[in-house]
Amino acid sequence: MKREFAVIGLGRFGGSICRELSEEGMDVLAIDIHEEKINEYKNIVAHAVIADTTDENTLKELGIRNFEHVIVAIGENIQASILTTLMLKELGIKKITVKAQNDYHEKVLNKIGADHVVHPERDMGRRIAHNIISTNILDHLELSDDHSIVEVKAGSRMHGKTLIELDIRAQFGCNVVAIKQANDKQINVSPMADQIIDQDDVLIVIGADKDISRFEKQLV
Ligand code: ADP
Fold this sequence. Notes:
CATH topology of the largest domain: Rossmann fold
Protein name: Potassium transporter Trk
Pfam families: TrkA_C (PF02080), TrkA_N (PF02254)
Number of helices: 9
Number of strands: 13
InterPro entries: NAD(P)-bd_dom_sf, RCK_C, RCK_C_sf, RCK_N, Trk_Ktr_HKT_K-transport
Largest sheet: 6 strands, parallel
GO molecular function: monoatomic cation transmembrane transporter activity
Low-confidence stretches: none
CATH superfamily of the largest domain: NAD(P)-binding Rossmann-like Domain
Radius of gyration: 22 Å
Organism: Gracilibacillus dipsosauri
Order of helices and strands: EHEHEHEHEHEHEEEHHEEEEH
CATH class of the largest domain: Alpha Beta
Helix content: 25-40%
Strand order of the largest sheet: 3-2-1-4-5-6
Strand content: 25-35%
Bound molecules: adenosine-5'-diphosphate
Distance between the termini: 46 Å
CATH architecture of the largest domain: 3-Layer(aba) Sandwich
Mean pLDDT: 92
Number of domains: 2
């Protein structure tokens, strides 16, 4: 069964969501106020419509209420983004994801009941900053303001030791949830205490940022 998504605003972010959802076989309604955007996407998505979504009647006429998930990707025009979100909320849309342009925008969106507020530039910036600072942190996924999941490459200090010997949970308060082995590219999603770590194995670690940072400095 196809799931229905509506994406409002076909800038870089909304456009990329449209392409990806369509490639995954989803039925997407793409909406933008500008005709050239609609022309760009009409052959990519199932339906593409020129409309100003700050107008309540327009939203109703589009049948937006029939969509289970609406993504508001209006970027620069914060007022249009807030008004659209407010109206979608009033129309009873079950799931509304909105892109925030800055922290104030995010606050307002949370206040008016957006279900999921995303902040792609800020989050990607943070992620890249973490990757730049630490050569051993291969990737970084923020879970909350102070918890993350990171991918770290095991160095010589861990080589040849078992998880129990390294005692990461007790020493640093973080958990190794999976290990990608360097030699055979296998991923072990429930590593046992006696698993031996080799240099260049990739450990997927979950924990508080301060604990992960200690772990990284002392052991990686
Ligand atoms: P990004 O940073 O993701 O590229 P932009 O702000 O450049 O985001 O793009 C947002 C898109 O939203 C633009 O294509 C713009 O035409 C569209 N848009 C702006 N206001 C409205 C509106 N009221 N109704 C529908 N689409 C809108």
